Amino acid sequence: MTSVTSDSPAAAAGLKSGDVIVEYDGRRVARSEDLPRAVADTPAGHQVPVTIVRDGQRITLNVRVSRLKDQESVPAAAMSEDEAPLGLSVQTLTPEVARELKLDQARGVVIRDVRDGSRAAAAGLRPGDVIVGVDRRRVKTVEEMKSILQKHASGMPTLFLVHRDGGNVYVPVG
After folding, report:
1. Minimal CA–CA distance to 76: which of 156, 133, 167, 146?
2. What is the pTM of this model?
3. Within this chain, do residues 90 and 115 fall inside the same structural domain, yes or no?
4. Integer Cα distance of 56 and 141 in angstroms
5. Res 75: pLDDT
6. Number of C-beta neighbours around residue 24 at 10 A
7. Is 163 found in the same domain as 100?
8. Three-class SS of residue 24?
9. Is residue 110 within a helix (H) or strand (E), and if so which, with residue range?
10. What does DSSP say about strands 27-28 and 88-92: parallel, antiparallel, or unpaired?
11. Which domain holds residue 58?
């Protein structure tokens, strides 16, 4: 999690900024969109076990699910497929996430999922790739990536610098 609002159910359960949720109510959380879907399927008021990775250790917390206030949303570190016209689900890469995913890169934006049939899939981007640059500008967070993509010229291919298998490769996505 990139941030935890002090009066939220997550804070009340003991979740902290930087925690990586790996399991929710017995279900593995493998992709960024898995968690919101699982929470949405849980009736408000139910208490569920949530397994996290914090400082390299797995911890299970009990979280009481409640309705979100109008101002709350999925953490800004995650970018869902709906927000990404290229067909990517991404997450800001933190040292904790890098350890959990066994990545040798500790900075950038990790691809959690690529929608079948999307422009990103056609270009060869894949889950586990770490985006370190977009249009020849370095990116460290999803917010930086979004900002660059919003300014990208329509109709032109987007050039991604991707860290994959210990090396970097440029991937144009048209």
Report:
1. 146
2. 0.54
3. yes
4. 21
5. 35
6. 22
7. yes
8. strand
9. strand 109-114
10. unpaired
11. 9-64
- pLDDT, position 4: 63
Task: Report the sign of the C-alpha dihedral through residues 38, 143, 151, 111, in that order.
Answer: negative
The phi and psi torsions of 116 (rounded to 5 degrees) equal -55, 135
Please, what's the largest Cα pairwise distance for the chain? 48
pLDDT value at position 166?
84
Q: Along the chain (174 residues), what's the average pLDDT of each consecutive run of 10 residues?
A: 63 79 86 71 86 85 70 36 67 83 83 85 90 93 90 83 89 86
Q: What is the pLDDT of residue 67?
A: 63
How many domains does the chain contain in total? 2
Name the nearest CA neighbour of 129 among 157, 84, 170: 170
Are residues 80 and 24 in contact, defined by beta-carbon separation less than 8 angstroms? no
Return the residue matching tokens 């291919």. 157
